[in-house]
Design goal:
Number of helices: 10
Protein name: Probable membrane transporter protein
Strand content: 5-15%
Family: Belongs to the 4-toluene sulfonate uptake permease (TSUP) (TC 2.A.102) family.
Shape: globular
Strand order of the largest sheet: 1-2
Main location: membrane
Keywords: Cell membrane, Membrane, Transmembrane, Transmembrane helix
Number of strands: 4
Organism: Aureimonas populi
Length: 309
């Protein structure tokens, strides 16, 4: 069944889009990521204009993240104080990111910038996570622990000033890296159309030493609100959100997130990290392939609005 999207100005298959949303929602609930790093490339692969894919992808993240966060809230695996501080930094980052998005679009470099950012960020994060998770699984096989380090372990982050205690996560850490991480995620949310979970989850585990059991739910809460701020800013500034497209993605996303959250209970922390790393690397390789292969049309004319003729 085909449907015409007014903002994207093209016809799409309803079932394909709902299926995309369901798949990304499942992964959102499973890994604690908003799924924007998947839905945006998928929409681009489906020939949705990148500017529309980025802005609408951020919108879809809200629904899948809310559904997954609700499931984790019922299990008591959400640190709201930590999520709130990450959100404060994320809101400021979203403002800066939307401005950067507007500048890149005006100069006609948005498509290239988004693709390059995805390849670099996903490749680095996925590679590091894969190495660590494989090492963790080897430790488990040898009879050890699969956790990265116990939550109380101190590194350079814990020696910074302005410390705050997060009781649910059993952390006593500086507010500086927490706010900085939130700001960085906010910028990514605006420029790349992601919730930032694929960066947030590894950073919380490896940098802040948050227990894996708390990371997923807390990340989803922060991702949900950061995506909401980004959506409002994108709609007001660039008018690149296709509400009909977002609605179709949300239908599948909400349903998929519930099943993903339930499936996540059956996997160990090291197994979840390995699967997420594999997923991240797969998307990076697919985008890299798109960048290096010869396009069907070698030349195009780009207007000042970022639209191609």
């Amino acid at each position: 069944m085909n449907l015409y999207l007014p903002i994207a100005e093209m016809s799409v298959n309803v079932f394909v889009l709902v299926g995309m949303g369901a798949a990304v929602g499942f992964l959102s609930g499973l890994f604690g990521v908003g799924g924007g790093f998947l839905i945006t490339p998928l929409l681009i692969f489906y020939n949705i204009p990148p500017a529309i894919a980025v802005a609408t992808g951020a919108n879809q993240v809200i629904a899948s993240s809310f559904s997954g966060a609700l499931a984790h809230f019922k299990r008591g695996t959400v640190d709201f104080k930590l999520a709130g501080m990450l959100l404060a930094g994320g809101a400021a980052g979203s403002v800066a990111g939307v401005y950067l998005f507007t500048v890149l679009r005006r100069f006609g470099q948005l498509d290239l910038a988004v693709s390059l950012l995805y390849v670099v960020m996903l490749g680095v994060v996925g590679g590091l996570m894969m190495v660590e998770s494989v090492q963790a699984m080897r430790r488990v096989h040898a009879g050890g622990s699969g956790e990265v380090k116990r939550p109380g372990h101190h590194n350079w982050v814990h020696r910074l000033p302005l410390k705050v205690r997060f009781k649910r996560s059993k952390l006593y850490v500086s507010a500086i890296p927490v706010l900085g991480l939130g700001f960085f995620i906010g910028v990514l949310a605006a420029v790349m159309g992601v919730g930032g979970g694929f960066i947030m989850v590894p950073a919380m585990i490896y940098l802040l030493r948050v227990p894996t059991s708390v990371v997923v739910g807390t990340s989803l809460v922060q991702v949900m609100f950061t995506a909401a701020v980004t959506t409002v800013l994108q709609a007001a500034t660039n008018q690149t959100i296709d509400v009909l497209l977002a609605f179709l993605l949300m239908i599948g996303g909400v349903l998929g997130a519930q099943f993903g959250a339930e499936a996540g209970r059956k996997l160990r922390g090291d197994q979840l990290r390995a699967l997420l790393a594999l997923l991240v690397l797969s998307v990076a390789v697919r985008l890299l392939f798109e960048l290096v292969t010869m396009p069907d049309e070698l030349f195009s004319i780009t207007l000042s609005t970022g639209e191609e003729l």
